[in-house]
Amino acid sequence: NIKHGRPRWKRVVGWTGPVPRPRHGHRAVAIKELMVVFGGGNEGIVDELHVYNTATNQWFIPAVRGDVPPGCAAYGFVCDGTRLLVFGGMVEYGKYSNDLYELQASRWEWKRLKAKAPKNGPPPCPRLGHSFSLIGSRCYLFGGLANDSEDPKNNIPRYLNDLYSLELRPGSSVVGWEIPMTLGQPPPPRESHTAVATTGRTANKLIIYGGMSGINICGRGAFSEVSAFKTCLPGFPGAPCAIKISKVRHLFVKSTETCVCVCAHVCASTDPSRANHCDLITLQIHPYTLVCVRPRGGKLRTASE
User: Fold this and answer.
1) Which InterPro entries match (predicted)?
2) Dist. CA 114–CA 3, nearest whole Å
3) How many CB atoms lie within 10 A of CB 197?
4) pLDDT in tens, 77-134
5) Residue 66 belongs to what domain range?
6) Is 185 a member of any domain?
7) pTM of the full predicted structure?
8) Residue 94 to residues 73, 105, 155, 271: CA-CA distances in angstroms?
């Protein structure tokens, strides 16, 4: 509950209905008072769609129809009104997707969309762990992890830093990919990052944070300066105590006034070099400009639009 500038956590209890089983790699979006949860993984890929009504504290499973997609994990999920879009993800071990699906929540109908290829390059390759963000009438796809092996059992990882946009037309299923011409230094390749869209008076921004591009969870971060991570270690005023993080994830939450980010992918060692992707990168949408902001010690500062 976020109210009057004093956020308060509260565990939800007393719910009714068919509760989703434990999972990871799933996604959730909000439609008014509804939270829609799809996919994920738990001893296999989950293909279930669950909806939670925050007003009545009830879970339910809608009767879907149409081109129902296979289960997937670590995919892209955006909500445009009552229209939900799913892109990519892992559909089975070593097998990734670049399919695009639409779910019309007003009638719980799935439809597979055939997006046109961009004029200046190939369409997005199959991937997982990418970000998929909605700004206005466009979705922005960034990064992720591809598998360059034709044998799913022999994974050859390739980390991505490509950027695509997808224009959405109200009431139309005709969509097409575009490859924006960007300025500035692009972010290094990564997956499992977060991307938050912000809108301002003069420009819209896509803020990309964290992620990983290494093999070993305790390996050196691909682009995280050693001195830059000292703010996450004991001894820095206000820093949390050292904790062991086993999840290869982090959190980036945006509200109208505040962005709160918590980085993970850290092993138990106090060596500041053993951290992945503690950098912050913004993409100004109009015009397309990439700005890289390196982490640093000192006091916490806020960024305005």
Assistant:
1) HCF1/2, Kelch-typ_b-propeller, Kelch_HCF
2) 42
3) 20
4) 999 999 999 999 999 988 999 999 999 999 999 999 999 999 999 999 999 999 999 9
5) 1-180
6) no
7) 0.73
8) 12, 30, 6, 32
